[in-house]
Amino acid sequence: MLLVMAAALGAAVLAGCATAAPSPGAAPSPSAPSSGIDTDATLRCGDTPVPARALTEPRPATELSAEVLAVLENPLADVDEPLSDWLIAHETVERVVIMREREEPVDLGGGDIATYDLRAIEAADEHALPLDAPWGLVGAANCTPRIDLGTLTGAGVTLDPDALPDGGDERIVLLVTERECNSGRPATDRVELVELVETETTVEVVIGVRPHESGAFTCPSNPPTPFTVELEQPLGDRVIFDAAVAPAREISAGERY
Fold it and tell me: Where are the beta strands (DSSP E) in the chain?
């Protein structure tokens, strides 16, 4: 399913962002990140803003108006049944966005793994389908909810297969794949570490890419950009998470082009 996650850059969108160790008896398991979703934040799923509360307190799409439901029941919308599995991510008098978590995530490559399906429906749009209805489908996609990085853009993040981390390492080498158009070139000198959270059991990173100030670029796939994160202490057996996505996801090894 497609989700859009947004939160202001520098805002505390991650619950438990302090680097202090968990209190006794309350430490997370090695596979569980300390960060969670701030229900008051706005996320982005692709280009679509989605209130985090829509995910944490979901309303089923069956609660939508009869006119909108008629569009969703049209085969053109490609909305798999049951409709109750889809949640309302956004609803106004002119636009509705629904999402559904996928049973099997879609690996788009370079650490970009889509976990949701998304459908956008709008009223009286000349490009909407069906053309002769008061409401119509205007967009369909796969995405993963992400926090909003403000002026930075999100990126796919994997571990460098040529420099996989060892327990004694005090740094981790990542491969960061820019998602914006960059004429098939790496994001050299534009990758930024937005946030690093270290706990007893996890290392959680938020990575963003600073856009070019100007210029026109074509959109072939971009190669990954190596990026090193310095740790406060040796990695040990801690698990490394991408905390820019919601919920945070363990980072796995990628591929060099």
Answer: 42-45, 48-51, 87-91, 95-107, 113-123, 135-143, 145-147, 155-159, 171-178, 191-198, 202-209, 225-230, 239-242, 249-250
